[in-house]
Amino acid sequence: MKRILKIGMLLNITAFVAVMLFSCANPDAVIQAMGSDDTLSGIIADSVVFYRSDSGVINLELHTPRMVRMETEDDIMEFPLGFDVYMYDKGSKTTELHADYGKSYGKSQLIEAAGNVIVKNFGSEETMFSDKLFWYQEQKMIYTRSHVKIVTPDKQIEADSLVAREDFSEYTMYSGSALLDVDEEK
User: In whole angstroms, how far apart are CA 108 and each of 22, 77, 85, 97, 160?
Assistant: First the structure.
């Protein structure tokens, strides 16, 4: 009986070792497949702060609670929980852009902002409100075909669309109306 148990255990151990040796896949192939473009479709990052600089001087700062980067031809980054962008000129903060949702198209350098879009120019004390906005970074221009409102210390202007420089130093509004403070002389 002892001999049968020894032979049975020996057979079990031999079978176990054989299964272990011949069932293993090539780990290098598995690792390479995990790193291929087909399996890595994107990256998700939370609490992101991004700086862009030129010659060591910051010209843009972006804050977002969540960034999703998709591996596409246009290198898309999505900000599903919103974002805040601060633009600088010679180290001084000039403009702030806020939105509840955003999408950046890397190759075309286009940023789409939607939902509670607010643009503040700190120098002129102008604030723009809209539902949707397109910012062409290479052209340094902002466009919208949505209702837009600009509020300054002495006026409020509303229109159906807008074309503006990114720093808001110049803008053109279409199909609009204005409410102005006028000093009456007697």
Answer: 51, 12, 18, 19, 25
Does 176 have pLDDT greater than 80?
no
Assigned token pair, 161: 């669309």
What are the CA-CA distances from residue 93 to residues 90, 103, 171 (Å)? 9, 23, 20
> Is 60 exceeded by the pLDDT of residue 44?
yes
53: amino acid identity, one letter: S
The pTM score is 0.71
Task: Supply 102's token pair.
Answer: 């955003």
Q: Are 126 and 168 in contact (CB under 8 A)?
A: yes
pLDDT of residue 36: 54
CA 111 distance to own-chain centroid: 8
C-alpha radius of gyration, the chain, whole number: 29
State the Cα–Cα distance between residues 144 and 137, nearest whole angstrom.
14
